Amino acid sequence: MPTTTAVRELPHPSREEIRLEAVLHALADPVRLRIITVLNTHGEGEGNGATCSQVELPVSTSTATHHFRVLREAGVINQCYRGTSKINCLRRADLEARFPGLLDAVLRAAAN
Amino acid sequence: MPTTTAVRELPHPSREEIRLEAVLHALADPVRLRIITVLNTHGEGEGNGATCSQVELPVSTSTATHHFRVLREAGVINQCYRGTSKINCLRRADLEARFPGLLDAVLRAAAN
DNA sequence: CTCGTACTACGGTGGCTATCGTACTAACCG
DNA sequence: CGGTTAGTACGATAGCCACCGTAGTACGAG
């Protein structure tokens, strides 16, 4: 056992495993729409993204955890640990490859 | 009371009343995705569209009624009576005005 | 008027889900 | 080590929702 910091991996669907129904269901919730709207204003690079607590939500932290997980399991966002925080970012490239134009259309629509 | 054939009106949300969450929720179901996929192959003009029974679905007729109603109340489809049948057609123009590109992106995605 | 077709309304059932609070773990800072 | 911060796991609850069958309505054909 190396003494390096343990990297807690989180399960993500591969690009091919992303299902349309799951994505639409994940987006059909006002709290989760808000999450992706906020994430949209952050970069997507390896080191970019927002922590869970940076996204202000009108629900408890445990409920917020639930919503982030739904988005991750649907393949909409990527989550990785960074110290005590968890970094969230949109999976733009994967979503664009799988369902071209969908994410942008939803983001534009959510912006009113 | 005129003796003309009674026109049973059905409630539809106006263009401005169409809500994004409702549309996404309506589309996040495999049966309803199939419905709009089939309707997409029919014309949208006043006289076009498909009857409920023309859309083959793997559910009972009462459940099918439920799905058509969800789509109508979300503003995704328009329904009007024509004799004993009900004609269904997509509300393309309204959806495009409200959420540009969304319907097309979903239809493309659903087509695999 | 009777019959068949097309769809609906209603009631019930099981499963999912958004929400919460509480208790917990993981990492970093002194 | 102890404390703080960030997020999670768990259990509970209430509401919604997809589904069905049965009974009923509306319309057109004969």
UniProtKB/TrEMBL annotation, chains A, B:
Record keywords: Transcription regulation included?
yes
User: Which CDD domains does the record match to this protein?
Assistant: HTH_ARSR
The record's section on Pfam families has: HTH_20
Q: Which InterPro entries match?
A: ArsR-like_HTH, HTH_ArsR_DNA-bd_dom, HTH_MetalResp_TranReg, WH-like_DNA-bd_sf, WH_DNA-bd_sf
The superkingdom of the source organism is: Bacteria
SUPFAM superfamilies given for it?
Winged helix' DNA-binding domain
| Record SMART domains | HTH_ARSR (SM00418)
Q: Which UniProt keywords apply?
A: DNA-binding, Transcription, Transcription regulation
> Which intervals hold domain HTH arsR-type?
12-110
What PANTHER family would the database entry show? TRANSCRIPTIONAL REGULATOR, ARSR FAMILY, TRANSCRIPTIONAL REGULATORY PROTEIN
* Name the UniProt record assigns to this protein: Helix-turn-helix transcriptional regulator
Identify the species of origin: Streptomyces smyrnaeus
